[in-house]
């Protein structure tokens, strides 16, 4: 089965940028849609972005215009470029394989990477 490992989380100031990586092993990501989720303490899990196998991309309204999802199939990695980070963006971010981007279904996720935004 595909195993996912996220990285790139860090502490940044408001307005800063981070690039998260979701690297796969044990299989190829180009067979799956890939979701990025986030969950902050005391809050529900929120879908942030998704890239489907046909190249369709989805973003939550809260991150549109600031976050960009991309795939590098040669590297078996999906990225989430996060710009103009806001105080409401801190959370544990994790990626997951999914059958499609419509809805919220997913197969398997990684352990997540922590994003903190603070001055």
Describe this structure in words.
The protein has 119 residues and is an all-beta fold. It contains no helices and eleven strands. It has strands at residues 3-7, 11-12, 18-25, 33-39, 46-51, 57-59, 67-72, 77-82, 91-98, 108-109, 113-117. Strands 2, 4, 5, 6, 9, 10 and 11 form a seven-stranded mixed beta sheet that branches. A four-stranded antiparallel beta sheet has the order 1-3-8-7, with no helix packed on it. Strand 5 (46-51) and strand 6 form a beta hairpin. The termini are far apart.
What would a concise description of this structure say?
With 119 residues, the protein is mainly beta. The protein contains no helices and eleven strands. Strands 2, 4, 5, 6, 9, 10 and 11 form a seven-stranded mixed beta sheet that branches.
């Amino acid at each position: 089965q595909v195993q996912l490992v996220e990285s790139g989380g860090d502490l940044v100031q408001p307005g800063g940028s981070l690039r998260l990586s979701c690297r796969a092993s044990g299989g190829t990501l180009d067979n799956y849609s890939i979701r990025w989720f986030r969950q902050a303490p005391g809050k529900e899990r929120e879908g942030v972005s998704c890239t489907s196998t046909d190249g369709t991309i989805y973003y939550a309204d809260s991150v549109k215009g600031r976050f960009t999802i991309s795939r590098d199939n040669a590297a078996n990695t999906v990225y989430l470029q996060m710009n103009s980070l806001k105080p409401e963006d801190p959370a544990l971010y994790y990626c997951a394989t999914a059958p499609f981007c419509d809805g919220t279904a997913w197969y398997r996720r990684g352990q997540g990477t922590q994003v903190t935004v603070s001055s």
